[in-house]
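Support reply, case 0932

Customer input (verbatim):
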Amino acid sequence: MLSMDKDKPSKIFLLILLGAFLLYLLYLFLIWLGKVYVFLGYNSFFFLDNLLAITLFNPVVMWGVFGLFIGSMVGIIIAVKKFKLNYNLVFYPLTLVILFLSLLGFINKPAEFYGNYNPPLKLNNITAEPIEPSVPKNFYSLKTMVNVRTGPTTFDSIIFTLQKGTEVELVKKGFYNKNRNEWFKIKYKDQEGYVNSKFLKHSRFGY
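Our regenerated output:
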């Protein structure tokens, strides 16, 4: 009995150490889980934003349409459960959502990425210092017909208009307006102007 009493403090100490170690592992796991959650949430939002980007429509309209599709799915699922309807009804809105997103994915290619991203120095105004493109030169093609302007906002006057598919040379990037939209300064046949970066798609490098 005496030997058991002597060993009891050491066992308690070992249990405390083990408990502290397990708590530390739990702490590390929660930190990792939080980073994964933030990463997935942040990138999922921008993936969806790029997926739903249609030049002819305001982003709010596209997000609203997407929300209607999701809402219709939830509504039909609730109705099927409540009124004991045929579960096949759920596949109708699901099919529409899949077709809708597949079509947008084919058009916008939201996962495409070209070149290196240079984060802005300032996001709240257009005075952010422009970033010089690296050598070799970058060439971009237009996703749609756009107006080339004298400055990086839609309030600046139009210099000329370019048709969809026209290739232009990047002069500078990193111009941000108050809405945090990035604009590129481009060159086309010795004429320079500004175009919203969302209308441009990287085509090639050159000298």
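We compared this against your earlier run and they match. Two observations from our side: Residues 137-206 form a domain with the SH3 type barrels. fold (CATH 2.30.30.40). Residues 113-117 have pLDDT under 50 and may be disordered. Please reopen the case if you see a mismatch on your end.
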